[in-house]
Predict the structure.
Amino acid sequence: MVKERANLHGGFIIRTVRKYRAMSQQEVCFLYGISEKTLSNWERERNDPHFGHVQAICEDILKVELIDAITMAFDELEKQKQEAA
């Protein structure tokens, strides 16, 4: 279980919290000043965002502390695994 937490992708964390906050990719991109393609690539796990981007988007844009965002993403991952089983 600890190994899974260590491998949690930054884009998955952002996507999980963004959906929880009911914000569109466009809104996050506008507020953070990045392109929609960049955010889309992060969320689709095509590129890995720098840790600082994950923290800034979660805390400054989505207003969720990083540790809470990681917990939310891990819970979502577990939920997806249970639904797939």
Q: What stands out?
A: Confidence is low (pLDDT under 50) at residues 1-5. The longest helix spans residues 66-84.
